[in-house]
Amino acid sequence: MAEVFGRRDKRVENLWDRNAFGLPQTEVTYSADQWFVDTRIGQIKAEVRTIFSKMGATLTTDPSQSWRADHAGSTCRMSVDPPDGVVDGDLKVHGTDNLYVCSNAVFPNIGAVNPTLTVTALALRLADLISGGGV
């Protein structure tokens, strides 16, 4: 339905500060694009309302029930070079042994469809790689 486009000013980073376990603390930098919030989500909501109306249903105003189907991702982007992302083409975290990320977090951007099939393909590929079957 919609995508919040990835940009350098939207990121997850490790800090130099360490937590109680000695691991780097994490900082999430994100701010919603006002156009996206005000305009695009409004357009989508109007379209969903039209679809619901044609089905004889109504769009709820109850904030505990969402009509949206978000698939947050792109927080551990795949890249060739470490400054441009978190994991390499084999889903291994740059500069770290034996640590992999297998989710839609590695996508450079999220498309407007469910990511399940692509994540499943990545999981099968990673399982084959880790089990020694190669890619």
Description:
A hairpin with a 5-residue loop joins β1 (11-18) and β2 (24-29). The model has no long low-confidence stretch (mean pLDDT 82). 27% of the residues lie in helices and 10% in strands. A two-stranded antiparallel ribbon has the order 1-2. It has 135 residues and is α+β, with helices and mostly antiparallel strands.
Helical proportion, percent range: 25-40%
**What structural class results from the helix and strand content?**
alpha+beta
In DSSP terms (H or I, runs of 4 or more residues), the helix count works out at: 2
The strand order across the widest sheet is 1-2
Order of helices and strands: EEHH
- Compute the CA-based radius of gyration: 19 Å
Average residue-wise pLDDT: 82
Largest sheet: 2 strands, antiparallel
The rough form would be described as globular
Number of beta-strand segments:
2
Determine the strand fraction and express it as a percent band.
Answer: 5-15%
Low-confidence stretches: none
The separation of the N and C termini measures: 32 Å
What key attributes describe this structure?
two-stranded antiparallel ribbon, 10% strand, 2 helices, alpha+beta, single chain, 135 residues
Write the layout of secondary structure elements.
Blueprint: E1 11-18, E2 24-29, H1 34-54, H2 116-130
Antiparallel strand pairs: 1-2
